[in-house]
Every structure is written in C-alpha cells, then in structure tokens.
Amino acid sequence: MGIIFIAGEIDADVWRDVLAAELPEIDFDTDFYVWPDRPTDPGDIDIALVWRPPENALSEFPGLACVINLGAGVDSILNDETYPRHVPLVRMIDPALTRHMTEFVIQRVLTFHRKFHVYDSFQRNHDWKEMRQEDTLTKRVGILGLGELGSDAARVLASIGFDVAGWSRREKTIDGVQSFFGEDAFTPFLGRTDILVCLLPLTEATRGILNADTLSQLPEGAYVINAARGGHQVEADLLAALDSGHLAGAALDVFNEEPLPASSPIWDHPKVLVTPHIASLSSPGSAAREIAANIRRIRKGEEPTDQVSLDAGY
Ligand code: GLV
C-alpha cells in the first residue's frame, strides 16, 4: 500500500511531515511517493493526495481506493474525463480553510460597506472628506452557495448585523440567514442583494453564472465579490457592468486565466480590487488530522467521510 502526492505547486515535504506526525503507523520514507516518482508496481498505490493533478495521472493507479483533494474546489479533478469514477473523491473540510475564507469575505464586504477602498483613494490625494454611512442592518448581503464555506461566511456576516440571504440548490436552514433555493428563487435573490458574494462550486450549472443578464438583476450600485472560481464570471460582462455604473465595485480573487495576465484591463480598473487567488489557502497543520482519519478509515475498508458527489460535481 502506498500514498501518492500529486500536487505540483504545493510543498510535498510540509504535507509529508504533518501527515507523518498524525500517522506513525505508516512509513513515509518508503510508502509516500511524490509525483512523478511512483512505485515499480503502480498497483501498490491505494491513496492519492491531489491538487490540480495532470489529466490521466489518476487513471495510472488501478488499486486506488480513494482520492483526497488538498483544496476546497474539486472542479479540476472532475473536469478530467479519465477520472476513475468508481474511486471515492474526498473534499477538504478544514476549520482553518473555512475560517480564512470567512475572514476574506468579511474584509471585502466591510471594505465595500464602509467604502474603505474609496477612503484609500482619498488618502492618496490628501483629501479629507467624509461620505454618508449606511447602516449595517439595511445592507443586504447575498451569498451564492451555502456549502461549508458559504454557510460559515453567511452566519458570521449575519452576526455582525448584515441582512444576509443565501442562494443554493436546496433549502438551507441557517440562523439569521434567509434561504433562497432553486432556479425560480434566483431572480428575487439577486434583486434583494446589495453585495453579492460568490462561493459556489464550479460545475456545468454554475459556469458563467455572473454574466450580463444576472448582473443586471442586481440593484443599481451593487458590489460583487468572487472568491470561488474565475469560471463563474464572464469578465467582459463584469467590466461592462462596472463601466456603465450599474455595479459600484468588484473584489476578485479568481480569474478566467491565472495568473491574471499583466495586460489584463482588470488590474488597473479603478473599481476592481484584485487578489491573486489567496482568499483561503490550505493549512496542512490544521487539515492533516481529518485527512489522517480518512486514510485510517480507508485502510480499514471503511467509507471515507466528506465524499464529493461525482454527479452533482461538489
Ligand atoms: C482554492 O481555490 C481551493 O479550492 O481550495
């Protein structure tokens, strides 16, 4: 039995160390392989730890019992036609990942709500000027996607006093958060949302969901925050809605092409706040315990927890 780590951009040594500390029964010197290294018999691999694995990589291992994703989104794995669909795929559920995403969302929502981004520009011009302050209780935040990340952000935003609603495929019950669900509820949800936060999984159903039509259904002067995937936004439509004045601003952490090309007009757009896909980075130290517990379950022949539905795509 062996573990293969296929996560090019991520430091394998850090993960090896934290997992070795949680799993003393496994010999990480002999049974842990960092792609493209692998055992002579690929059938020896039963567990893959992955982040954006190259296409075809997972189909090389006929004895795979489980694939564990080292990030929140599983879109890059499910887009691979060769993914062995009988193998359970486990999402990363990590309190630190959730906490950090909530921090990002709160920071961006407060920036727009209190217009801190505009005060930053006043400072650059040595301009001592105050703007009208709207009350938190009347500011309507809408979270697209009430999964692990969206639910936590919604709960914390509601606890600060925002008027929070969420939109999801199925009804969700979260204290202080209004649940809109299903396609029919999308238009009313957009119509009541001053600050829209996208935390959806990227699936065929959600690709391009932030487009000219949907953005036009937000009230005049709304803001958009996308910390999910670039594929959710039609960037030309978003820029057009900002330029026409319909949208007051956008905070984007994700883009159709990453890194965002130096020539992209998004970089210098006066109404856009750009961050380089850092809203919430995985924290090996915190995530290792849950992953180790799943590795133990799998090796005992039990079902892993936190499985992704391959049909739903999240
Ligand atoms: C980052 O984008 C993630 O999916 O964890």
List the keywords:
9 helices, single chain, 5-stranded parallel beta sheet, 314 residues, binds glyoxylic acid, 7-stranded parallel beta sheet, 17% strand, elongated, Rossmann fold, 2 domains, alpha/beta
What do these coordinates show?
There is one protein chain. By secondary structure, the protein is α/β, with parallel strands linked by helices. It folds into 2 domains: 2-94 and 282-299, 3-Layer(aba) Sandwich (Rossmann fold); 95-274, Rossmann fold. The chain has 9 helices and 12 strands. The protein has helices at residues 12-22, 75-78, 95-113, 116-124, 148-160, 186-191, 212-216, 235-243, 284-299; strands at residues 2-6, 32-34, 45-50, 66-69, 89-90, 140-144, 163-168, 177-181, 195-198, 222-226, 247-252, 272-274. The protein has a 7-stranded parallel sheet. A 5-stranded parallel sheet has the order 2-1-3-4-5, with helices on one face. Strand 4 (66-69), helix 2 and strand 5 form a beta-alpha-beta unit. The longest helix is centred in the N-terminal third of the chain and has 19 residues, at 95-113. The two termini are 28 Å apart. The site of glyoxylic acid has 3 residues, from loops.
